[in-house]
């Protein structure tokens, strides 16, 4: 998965899901926020429990809204990309 | 016998070619005369029909098939308006009747004309097209150049900003000699020399909600080449209300994004239309997350690529063989460009229109009235980025005062800009500890490079504009008491330099690089 700009690519393996939580995109987002995000400004990534406005979530090259958004169940080999929208010109 | 026929055919062909060339020469001479003496009435040409080698039935056959496309000959109307062409002469009239494009247009656009994607039909569509470019910066300059080059009939150029020196590395339609000019005006100067057959409508102002829909109504396609969410929402809303397709692009640092919106342009509530900007981004990003090219940086070719792609998408829309069929499901995609990634391009599938979209759905709450009345405040909607003002007055020092302080053993200056900026220019004896957003981590990084917060010396923090330096100063005062064993907060003295290096350049050292 990547979070651009300054793409960071990570391979994440989930063996079994912990505490019976579904291993969906919502779980992945929280997990990333808790384990990998160094910037303390969590609101730059997650706001009110979901990915903040201005960050596009792509599931295998499709807007996550086409795939069920945060309820999408992760499959083996899925590519999840977090992209900041750009505004400069 | 065969030889004789062949020779006779050859003679006939040569005669035809000579006649055609002479006709062309006559037209060129006339054009030259008109160009050299635009005020003079055209020379009277012989009234007899020009002699050509082309049979009359061929001449007449080309026209009906093209009739629908020559209804609006914008370029010709313009030449007449400018006095470059008066009442058409019989010869010119017959030329035009026979060929839908002017002689020089076949030569100018020949390389794209011979492509099946364009062809004569596509070129005529371009010639009749009116494209509005909002923003003549890094995106708008290349987009406008390629559209002018391709022979778009009318280009509307909207920009209220003036050309600055820091624009020139990427905004190539401007020029060193035109620094200080309005950008739309400067772009027109460049574009006119590139292709004088295009009509350029210059709007030396920022787009306003009150007039946007009316402006857009005059054009066929709109290009969003602006640089802020505020204008992006406004342009998208106005495109939906005016029923125009929108080619939107953006760029920052080494990355770019491109999406064609409201294509096909259907009225609000019609789900067969393409999604709008609000369908994709119903809520604006937090103001603090919005980086401009001035803050984040931009590589010229990166934004250039995106602008050129906008021109390409506009050409595709204008020259499309047929309007998008309404029963075809819309398949919007966003193209992402990342200069230093592999692959550099990624095309992602995007959603269709959003059922509850505030502007393009059947439940739309925003109307043309919301815009024209000025009741829709786009700046408030996107939120203004508050300037940082968090440190106590006694923790501030002006650049002037700082410059008069003795340094050396008495104080420590921590420059919190990133390494790249520090590498461009830095004060001697300053220590570089880039601000990373986390107080604890930043304090630790400072310790790692040998900053001793406990030695009782006066600390100073500085950055580019005086925002991050406040965050760093606060990090020191708020983090240290809890991390230093036995040392009290009073022992740690820190001030930030107000206005950062920008103030330093203005107040103290005018040679300081203004990057
Ligand atoms: Zn919409």
Automatic annotation (TrEMBL), chain A:
InterPro entries: Beta-grasp_dom_sf (IPR012675), Mopterin_synth/thiamin_S_b (IPR016155), Urm1 (IPR015221). Keywords: Cytoplasm, Isopeptide bond, tRNA processing, Ubl conjugation pathway. The keyword Cytoplasm applies. It comes from the Eukaryota. One of its GO terms (cellular component) is cytosol. It is found in: Cytoplasm. C-terminal thiocarboxylation occurs in 2 steps, it is first acyl-adenylated (-COAMP) via the hesA/moeB/thiF part of UBA4, then thiocarboxylated (-COSH) via the rhodanese domain of UBA4. Pathway: tRNA modification; 5-methoxycarbonylmethyl-2-thiouridine-tRNA biosynthesis. Pfam families: Urm1 (PF09138). The modification 1-thioglycine is found at residue 89. The keyword tRNA processing applies. One of its GO terms (biological process) is tRNA wobble uridine modification. There is a cross-link at residue 89 (Glycyl lysine isopeptide (Gly-Lys) (interchain with K-? in acceptor proteins)). Acts as a sulfur carrier required for 2-thiolation of mcm(5)S(2)U at tRNA wobble positions of cytosolic tRNA(Lys), tRNA(Glu) and tRNA(Gln). Serves as sulfur donor in tRNA 2-thiolation reaction by being thiocarboxylated (-COSH) at its C-terminus by the MOCS3 homolog UBA4. The sulfur is then transferred to tRNA to form 2-thiolation of mcm(5)S(2)U. Prior mcm(5) tRNA modification by the elongator complex is required for 2-thiolation. Also acts as a ubiquitin-like protein (UBL) that is covalently conjugated via an isopeptide bond to lysine residues of target proteins such as AHP1. Belongs to the URM1 family. This is Ubiquitin-related modifier 1. The gene is URM1.
Automatic annotation (TrEMBL), chain B:
Signal peptide: none annotated. Residues 34-54 are annotated as: Disordered. It catalyses: [molybdopterin-synthase sulfur-carrier protein]-C-terminal Gly-Gly-AMP + S-sulfanyl-L-cysteinyl-[cysteine desulfurase] + AH2 = [molybdopterin-synthase sulfur-carrier protein]-C-terminal-Gly-aminoethanethioate + L-cysteinyl-[cysteine desulfurase] + A + AMP + 2 H(+); [molybdopterin-synthase sulfur-carrier protein]-C-terminal Gly-Gly + ATP + H(+) = [molybdopterin-synthase sulfur-carrier protein]-C-terminal Gly-Gly-AMP + diphosphate. It is an enzyme of class 2 (transferase). The keyword tRNA processing applies. It comes from the Eukaryota. This is Adenylyltransferase and sulfurtransferase uba4. The lineage of its organism: Eukaryota, Fungi, Dikarya, Ascomycota, Pezizomycotina.
């Amino acid at each position: 998965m990547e979070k651009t700009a300054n793409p960071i690519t990570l391979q994440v393996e989930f063996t079994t899901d912990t505490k019976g939580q579904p291993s969906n995109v919502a779980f992945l987002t929280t997990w990333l926020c808790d384990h990998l995000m160094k910037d303390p400004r969590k609101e730059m990534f997650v706001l009110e429990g979901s990915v903040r406005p201005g960050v596009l979530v792509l599931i295998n090259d499709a807007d996550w809204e086409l795939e069920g958004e945060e309820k999408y169940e992760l499959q083996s080999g899925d590519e999840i990309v977090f992209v900041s929208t750009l505004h400069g010109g | 016998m065969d030889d004789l026929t062949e020779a006779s055919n050859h003679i006939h062909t040569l005669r035809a070619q000579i006649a055609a060339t002479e006709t062309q020469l006559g037209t060129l001479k006339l054009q030259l005369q008109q160009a050299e003496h635009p005020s003079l009435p055209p020379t009277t040409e012989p009234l007899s029909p020009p002699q050509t080698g082309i049979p009359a039935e061929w001449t007449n056959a080309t026209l009906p098939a093209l009739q629908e496309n020559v209804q609006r000959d914008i370029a010709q109307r313009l030449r007449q308006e400018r006095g470059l062409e008066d009442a058409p002469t019989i010869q010119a009239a017959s030329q035009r009747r026979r060929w839908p494009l002017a002689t020089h247009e076949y030569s100018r656009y020949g390389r794209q004309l011979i492509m099946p994607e364009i062809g004569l039909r596509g070129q005529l569509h371009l010639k009749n097209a009116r494209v509005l470019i909002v923003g003549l910066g890094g995106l708008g300059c290349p987009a406008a150049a390629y559209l002018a080059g391709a022979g778009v009939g009318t280009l509307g150029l909207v920009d209220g900003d003036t050309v600055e020196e820091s624009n020139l590395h990427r905004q190539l339609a401007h020029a060193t000699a035109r620094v200080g000019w309005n950008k739309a005006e400067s772009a027109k100067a460049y574009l006119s020399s590139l292709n004088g057959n295009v009509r350029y409508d210059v709007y030396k102002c920022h787009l306003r909600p009150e007039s946007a829909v009316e402006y857009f109504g005059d054009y066929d396609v709109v290009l969003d080449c602006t640089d802020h969410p505020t204008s992006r929402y406004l342009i998208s809303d106005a495109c939906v209300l005016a029923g125009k397709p929108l080619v939107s692009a953006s760029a920052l640092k080494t990355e770019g994004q491109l999406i064609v919106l409201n294509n096909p342009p259907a009225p609000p509530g019609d789900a067969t239309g393409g999604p709008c900007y609000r369908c994709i981004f119903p809520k604006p990003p937090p103001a603090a997350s919005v980086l401009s090219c001035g803050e984040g940086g931009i590589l010229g070719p990166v934004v250039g690529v995106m602008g050129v792609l906008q021109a390409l998408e506009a050409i595709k829309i204008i020259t499309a063989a047929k309007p998008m069929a309404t029963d075809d499901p819309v398949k919007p995609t966003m193209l992402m460009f990342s200069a230093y990634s592999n692959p550099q391009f990624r095309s992602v599938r995007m959603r269709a229109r959003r059922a509850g979209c505030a502007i393009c759905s059947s439940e739309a709450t925003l109307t043309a009235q919301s815009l024209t009345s000025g009741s829709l405040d786009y700046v408030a909607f996107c939120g203004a980025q508050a300037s940082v003002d968090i440190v106590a007055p006694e923790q501030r020092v002006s650049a002037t005062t700082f410059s008069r302080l003795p340094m050396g053993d008495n104080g420590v200056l921590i420059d919190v800009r990133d390494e790249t900026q520090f590498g461009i220019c830095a004060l001697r004896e300053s220590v570089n500890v880039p601000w990373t957003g986390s107080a604890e981590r930043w304090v630790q990084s400072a310790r790692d490079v040998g900053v001793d917060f406990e030695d009782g010396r006066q600390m100073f923090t500085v950055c580019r504009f005086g925002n991050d330096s406040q965050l760093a100063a606060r990090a020191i005062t708020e983090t240290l008491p809890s991390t230093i064993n036995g040392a009290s907060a009073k022992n740690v003295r820190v001030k930030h330099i107000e206005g950062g290096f920008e103030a330093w350049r203005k107040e103290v050292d005018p040679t300081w690089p203004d990057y």
